[in-house]
Each structure stands twice: as structure tokens, then as C-alpha cells.
Amino acid sequence: MKAVLPPSGELALRDHFRGRRNELRSRVTLDVTLIADAGELAARTIDVSRSGILLQLDESVVANAATLVELTSMLGTWFGSGEIKIRLLARLVRDARLVRVTMGGLGGSAVPLIACRFKKDLSKRQYERLVAAE
User: Which fold has domain 2-59+66-132?
Assistant: First the structure.
């Protein structure tokens, strides 16, 4: 799990995460749940591809993590192995690997962002259902 500070602003964030996934990304805003042995965390999607997802953690979840180091430590406690389950839709849960943790945000706000790679790519049908669910 890498901790990287990206530049701020939407275009800068897109540049920061560009090339990390080779699949087409769709900007999708959905509430999702991250599932760990320690419990569940609320998050919201920023974009999704068939191979991965960029998420913004709910600010209330990480209220005690003022710095990137504290955030990474907290996530390490929850997802020590970097393995994560993401409930995307009521009947669509995907195993994923946490690949990037960063503090960034749009409009100058600092929000926790995590990038995950699905262990098994979404099928074309699952991807289309997810994009249509917004």
C-alpha cells in the first residue's frame, strides 16, 4: 500500500491517477461499502472501470485521521493484508486489492481517496449495470 500526495483540483487528480488502469473509466457516483474483518466502512465511488475503482472514503469514517500517515495507519489496521471486499450493489460484491491511498479532493478540500484493483474484472454486463445504477 503506497501513500502518495497528489496535486489538488479535478484535472490534477485525473492526471495523477491516469494510466493506473488500462480500462475505460466511467465517472459514477454511488454509495458503496468496504467490508473487512474489523467491520464496514462507507465510501462513495468517483470512477469505475472493469478492472478497478477509485473511492472517496466517508469523511466521518476517517475523522480521526488528520494526516496521510494516520489515514494509511488506520486503513492498515482495517485492511492489513490490503485485501478488501467492496459491496457495489445489493447483489454485487467484489474482492479487490487496495493499491493506493492518498489525500486529495476537488475544489480544494482534502478528502481521503483510495484506489482498488478488482481481483477479477467486472463482466461487461456487471460494469454496465453499475454505470446505469447511478
Answer: Thrombin, subunit H (2.40.10)
* Separation of alpha carbons 128 and 107, rounded Å: 29
CB burial of 101-129 (b: ≥16 within 10 Å; e: otherwise) equals bbbbbeeeeebbbbbbbbeeebeeebbee
Residues of the chain predicted below pLDDT 50 = 1-7, 19
Q: pLDDT tens, 12-32? A: 555 555 545 567 889 999 999
The domain locations on the chain are: 2-59+66-132
